[in-house]
Write a structure and sequence with these properties.
By secondary structure, the chain is mainly β. About 0% of the residues lie in helices and about 35% in strands. It has strands spanning about 5, 10-15, 15-20, 25, 30-35, 35-40, 45-55, 60, 65-80, 80-85, 90-95, 110-115, 120. A hairpin with a 4-residue loop joins strand 12 (about 110-115) and strand 13.
Length: about 190
């Protein structure tokens, strides 16, 4: 697709994956992304004469830029990972100052479980684990899993939810007891 999502009104997008588009999101209206994952797009987010804010999200492996500001109002980035391994002309932020290192933002490989097969859960030891702003996070992730504090992540980069859990960045939580596609049966001991 040319645009994964294009808006021209007041739009809030939660727990959503937008992958393999020219522009993952083109913001023409008043757009808010919360706990979303944008992956393998030419431009992750193009802000074009609208207003835009992004929280608790991952913008990874874009080809040209993670977030490109053309015109409008950029209301900010918080608790978001904007990163790409691509180096040929790629920049995390175009047309706006880079907020990496401020308001919970960072730039690191999010360590997805298997993005080539559509598994965008953060893998074990992902920097996205427990790194979200809990007050902004929806109560469950894109698969309906509740927010979960990983006990093996001693340093929490985010802030807790009202229940005390630390949410993860992106559309899906790292939950060790989540349903798995692997079905093992012991036949001999």
């Amino acid at each position: 697709f040319y645009y994964g999502l294009q808006d021209s009104g007041r739009t809030t997008v939660r727990n959503t994956v937008i992958a393999q588009c020219d522009r993952g999101l083109k913001a023409n209206g008043a757009t808010r992304l919360i706990n979303c994952t944008l992956y393998d797009n030419r431009i992750g987010v193009a802000i074009h004469c609208g207003s835009f804010a992004i929280t608790n999200s991952i913008v990874a492996e874009s080809y040209e830029s993670g977030i490109a500001f053309e015109c409008g109002t950029f209301d900010g980035v918080s608790h978001t990972d904007v990163w790409s391994s691509r180096t040929n002309g790629y920049v995390n932020y175009r047309g706006t100052p880079d907020p990496t290192g401020q308001n919970g933002n960072f730039s690191a490989d999010p360590g997805f479980v298997d993005p080539e097969r559509g598994d965008f859960r953060p893998g074990y030891r992902s920097p996205a684990i427990d790194a979200a702003d809990g007050a902004a996070a929806p109560a469950t992730d894109g698969r309906g899993a509740p927010r979960y504090s990983d006990p093996r992540t001693p340093t929490k980069g985010g802030t807790p939810t009202t229940s005390g859990a630390f949410a993860d960045l992106g559309a899906f939580e790292f939950v060790e007891n989540a349903v798995s596609g692997v079905d093992l049966v012991g036949i001999d001991v």
